[in-house]
């Protein structure tokens, strides 16, 4: 069997081409840098609307009391906290993130909010999850898939750990669908965002990368196709805010 191009070739890190084996380390450096300002970062990138997107993402998910849920790239715990409300005292939410700094910030913030029972934290790579087959009723990843080097492997792993009848959901920055808004969005992303990152977080480069990573992420139809190729059925997506973000959904049947 030939070696995966993700292992032997090059991939993108923002608009730069880098060795695929190096991307995980480079992305890790970005998120280690911004971990303490992650919520601020999302506010700057979305003008605060990310909080509404996340609530919609969870409110429309297939989840009920007693379910076991995996939230990948769980970051500072925004999605996990919302999911915990849905699964209740009898359910469990596993917050997974490849970055130890992000995971630590997330655990501290959840504990400070009094959210302890029914929550687990696992440092893990989305491309090789440390869970048995058919372990979860729902798997989510919000604003994290675009940072996964081998997205196809990540989607296959999400499929593998889902129970039959389970749902996978992806919330991610996507391709703007309104032509007149595209130059406005680009101006905010490439001219304003790095300056705000430098001003508020003393880190322009990480914010520049994050803006670039959005443009390199597969657009809506391409990601829908990728989910189907990973094994998911009934794949669909819904654009929010003129396609600034999209919610992709697939099922294991």
UniProtKB/TrEMBL annotation:
Signal peptide: none annotated. It catalyses: a 2-demethylmenaquinol + S-adenosyl-L-methionine = a menaquinol + S-adenosyl-L-homocysteine + H(+); a 2-methoxy-6-(all-trans-polyprenyl)benzene-1,4-diol + S-adenosyl-L-methionine = a 5-methoxy-2-methyl-3-(all-trans-polyprenyl)benzene-1,4-diol + S-adenosyl-L-homocysteine + H(+). InterPro entries: SAM-dependent_MTases_sf, UbiE/COQ5_MeTrFase, UbiE/COQ5_MeTrFase_CS. GO terms for biological process: methylation. GO terms for molecular function: methyltransferase activity. Transmembrane segments: none annotated. Its EC number is 2.1.1.163, 2.1.1.201. S-adenosyl-L-methionine binds at residues 76, 97, 125-126. NCBIfam families: MenG_MenH_UbiE, PRK00216.1-3, PRK00216.1-5. Belongs to the class I-like SAM-binding methyltransferase superfamily. MenG/UbiE family. Methyltransferase required for the conversion of demethylmenaquinol (DMKH2) to menaquinol (MKH2) and the conversion of 2-polyprenyl-6-methoxy-1,4-benzoquinol (DDMQH2) to 2-polyprenyl-3-methyl-6-methoxy-1,4-benzoquinol (DMQH2). This is Ubiquinone/menaquinone biosynthesis C-methyltransferase UbiE. It comes from Pseudoxanthomonas gei.
